[in-house]
Amino acid sequence: MKKLILHLVVAIGFVGISSTVFAETKKVNLSAGLNYVLSHVATKRDNNQSNHNMGMLYYLGKKGVPVDHKKAAEWFSKAANNGFAPSQYALAVMYLNGDGVPQDAEKGVALL
């Protein structure tokens, strides 16, 4: 019984220490480095899926990448120009809504 109580006290102590450590840990922003690495990989592969994924990262602002609809449109355009349907659709919606690109219904409809 004494061992059980000792283990509980030690465990509670570790929880308290770990909570303090996590509370004092600063969040590191890796977006600049991550942006470079991801864009470098996508352009080296020059792959429609990679270009589309980069567009989605910028459009949604995921994985430390800041939301930037203009950059998203650039990445979607790379894949859309090669006939990649998901990027054509995403870019069409962006043109129809004027989201990151000048609103242009003709371009939007042409991409659909």
How would the global form be characterised?
globular
Output the structural class. mainly alpha
Relative helix content: over 70%
CATH 4th-level superfamily: Tetratricopeptide repeat domain
Residue ranges: pLDDT <50 for 5 or more in a row?
17-28
CATH-defined fold name: Serine Threonine Protein Phosphatase 5, Tetratricopeptide repeat
Cα(first) to Cα(last) distance is 71 Å
Write down the CATH class.
Answer: Mainly Alpha
Count of distinct strands: 0
Strand content: under 5%
Give the rounded overall mean pLDDT. Answer: 77
The largest pleated sheet is described as:
none
Q: Helix segment count?
A: 6
The tally of domains stands at 1
Question: What is the ordering of alpha helices and beta strands?
Answer: HHHHHH
> At CATH's second level, what is the architecture?
Alpha Horseshoe
Radius of gyration: 23 Å
Key attributes of the depicted protein:
mainly alpha; Serine Threonine Protein Phosphatase 5, Tetratricopeptide repeat; 6 helices
What does this structure look like?
By secondary structure, the protein is mainly alpha-helical. It has a single domain (31-111), classed as Alpha Horseshoe (Serine Threonine Protein Phosphatase 5, Tetratricopeptide repeat). The chain is 74% helix and 0% strand. It has helices at residues 2-24, 31-45, 48-60, 69-80, 85-97, 105-111. Helix 3 packs antiparallel against helix 4 (69-80) and helix 4 packs across helix 5 (85-97). The chain is globular and about 75 Å long. The chain starts with a helix and ends with a helix. Mean pLDDT is 77; it is low at 17-28.
